[in-house]
């Protein structure tokens, strides 16, 4: 198994394009069109399927990547659990990062695989 040591907070903390959300504020809702994925710099964000929290994303984590990978509507709702600072990564930048930063691509694949594995465990 390939392990990556990619610190996304360090990579993106000086980004000028940041989004600040307050606790309880939705970042996006299930079914929304996907415009970007998000890197969590500070705080935490709950991912919900229906009304159930399936994961809480902490600093250094990403969410919203699936919709960009497969160009489909959001499959979950993301709501700030605490006040949070996020970096949005649009499709153009995502494509650039995947093409030019191999560890970023491996990190995204690892996140996707981990989420799929955890969802499988819930139903087995």
Can you give a write-up of this model?
- The protein is α+β, with helices and mostly antiparallel strands and 124 residues long.
- It has a single domain (8-123), classed as Jelly Rolls.
- Helices cover 35% and strands 30% of the residues.
- It is built from 4 helices and 8 strands; from the N terminus they run αββββββαββαα.
- β4 (45-49) and β5 form a beta hairpin.
- α3 (91-100) packs across α4 (102-123).
- The protein is globular and about 35 Å long.
- 23% of the residues are buried.
- The model has no long low-confidence stretch (mean pLDDT 88).
Compose a concise summary of this entry.
Helices cover 35% and strands 30% of the residues.
What topology emerges from the helices and strands here?
Elements: H1 8-12, E1 19-21, E2 26-28, E3 36-42, E4 45-49, E5 52-57, E6 62-63, H2 65-70, E7 77-80, E8 84-90, H3 91-100, H4 102-123
Salient structural properties:
124 residues, alpha+beta, Jelly Rolls, 4-stranded antiparallel beta sheet, 8 strands
Percent of sequence in beta strands: 25-35%
Count of alpha and pi helical runs: 4
Strand and helix order: HEEEEEEHEEHH
Shape annotation:
globular
Radius of gyration: 14 Å
Oligomeric category: single chain
CATH homology superfamily name: Jelly Rolls
Spans of at least 5 consecutive residues with low confidence: none
Strand order of the largest sheet: 1-8-3-6
Mean pLDDT: 88
Number of domains: 1
Helix content percent band = 25-40%
Q: Which CATH first-tier class would you pick?
A: Mainly Beta
The CATH architecture classification is: Sandwich
Distance between the termini: 23 Å
């Amino acid at each position: 198994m390939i392990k990556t040591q990619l610190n996304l907070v360090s990579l993106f903390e000086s980004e000028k394009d940041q989004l600040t959300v307050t606790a309880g504020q939705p970042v996006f809702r299930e079914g929304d069109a996907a415009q970007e994925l998000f890197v969590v710099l500070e705080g935490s964000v709950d991912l919900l399927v229906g009304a159930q929290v399936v994961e809480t994303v902490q600093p250094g984590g990403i969410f919203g990547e699936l919709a960009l990978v497969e160009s489909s509507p959001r499959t979950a709702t993301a709501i700030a659990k605490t006040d949070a600072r996020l970096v949005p990564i649009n499709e153009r930048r995502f494509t650039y990062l995947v093409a030019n930063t191999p560890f970023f691509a491996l990190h995204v694949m690892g996140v996707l695989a981990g989420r799929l594995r955890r969802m499988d465990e819930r139903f087995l």
